[in-house]
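Collaborator request, handled under Task 6.
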Amino acid sequence: MGFLLATAAAAYAGIRWQGDDPTTYYRSLELPGFAPSADVLAPVLGLLYLLQALAAWVVWRQWGWKGSKGALNLWVLQLLLGAAWVPVFFGMEDVLLGLIVLVLLLIAVFSTITAFWQRSRLGALLLLPYGLWVAYATLLNGVLWWNTS
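Structure tokens returned to the collaborator:
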């Protein structure tokens, strides 16, 4: 339950500081053909946050706090970076800084997946869809930066 609350808090924090209407800004961008529609973002991110919580819970359940401390610290880091991207990209409307945050997030997520893999393959596999989404988001953000610079 704690991991679900942590992901919900991170999602709420990101939403709280994202700006008035992020879909207006998103739709105003010169989006590449592979960009998802604004309507898809919330349900996809909701599912990915749920999988993040479940992944951390699986690792914690198997190893406890002592045995999974380093892996769970990485999980918290990637959760915080994910929450930070939303207000940077949508609130500040800063595509370059958003890209920098996403690159750091991508490193953190795949570091977490690696740490989870050493403890629980199921935990790592549950986090993998988020890693793939972050890779996709990083590519998309990079193209947006390229198009606007």
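The cover message to the collaborator said: "The chain has one domain: 2-148. The chain has a mean pLDDT of 90. Please let us know whether this matches your experimental observations."
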